[in-house]
Amino acid sequence: MVDKLHIVGGGMAGSEAAWQAARMGVSVVLHEMRPHVETFAHQTGHLAEMVCSNSFRSDDDEQNAVGLLHWEMRAADGLIMKKADKHRIPAGGALAVDRNPFAQSVTEALKAMPNVEVSYGEITELPEDGHWIIATGPLTSGHLANALQAETGKEALAFFDAIAPIIYSDSIDMSKAWMQSRYDKGETEAERTAYLNCPMDRAQYEAFIDALLAAEKTEFKEGETAGYFDGCLPIEVMAERGRETLRFGPMKPVGLTNAHQPDVKPYAVVQLRRDNALGTLFNIVGFQTKMKYGAQTEVLRTIPGLEDARFARLGGIHRNTFLNSPILLDNQMRLKSKPHIRFAGQITGVEGYVESAAMGLLAGRFAAAELLGMPLALPPRKTAMGALIAHITGGADAKTFQPMNVNFGLFPPVDGLKAGRKGRKDRYKAYTDRAKTLWTEWLNQGALNAA
Q1: What is the CATH number of the domain that holds 197?
Q2: pTM to 2 decimals?
Q3: Which of 61, 84, 255, 338 would staple 67 via disulfide (CB 3.0–4.6 Å)?
Q4: Is residue 186 part of an annotated ligand binding site?
């Protein structure tokens, strides 16, 4: 018999870590503080609840790094991808899920495993012994965050994350809005019409920017600073960087034709993505915000088609804690000062649901292999998971370390391929082909070690 593995945090990373370790034969105790201790962003007590977007982003495993990460997780029998596929809803070339059934199915799958115990209650201190994975994500509790700060000093960092609003679909004026995925992307009609589009002419866009800049914003507490992650900026922060920033970001009009006025090219477009399988809820894509609630409803109702919008959830802002992993963690995500504790997920400095779950997958396998006396080699750096873990545990500059999405810039180059935009398609295909071969070999080697 081996000792139990304790995992703190039942989000994407913790749930995936528990699944992987339990599948390897280790007894797991998954500690989740919700619903006894609530957070600003969570709505339920389910494991793996999606609190921001409902998108896992691109599912293209030949031309996109996050799509490749999907592929690697599926190949490793990942729970998060298994349930995401089961509860998939149309989103063009992206993988979006019906968030509540998805979280419920993850919860049911883990509770059905005989060697997994889900323990509800808050862990407030760093454990002094045993085998632990801390996967508390962006909303690490204040007590545990203080314990981390005491252990790591100034090297524990924090930034602010923002949530996008969700709108009831029957309150959207479809005489102004239309359904279309950008560039009509998707293999089915449902995929090609997965997004709801609200067009703006130049005057409407300028008025929207003015209202956005003038709106009341959430104030920070004394001593707090806004160190936003660039991949998840509030819309008003983007607007402050330049009046055209949003038009070249989440409001870009390219690849879309207004079904009501096909001869008139919109100056800007606000996109909404279906948030549940019924199609009764839509979230505004890229519209994370720190506007106060009253200001949100006023500003967002200036968008054509959303004049009478009813909100299922307004946007918000919350503190997001992560570690300076290049300094604090070893290459298997163990805390150097307390190597019986591993970290996984967003707290390690990855950004995104998929990246967080992927680090949970690795942490669960590493911890289980260690408990079983079968140490596991690191995945090759030429795989998506190998590139990501190498970046956060030493490849990044610790002085400027910020949360990172998976991207091909983290991969070692393929020799002999043309650089620049013209050679990008062939280069990305070479990256993904190489990664799939190496990832399969790594998985098989782990299976041989366990045999």
Answers
A1: 2.40.30
A2: 0.79
A3: 61
A4: no
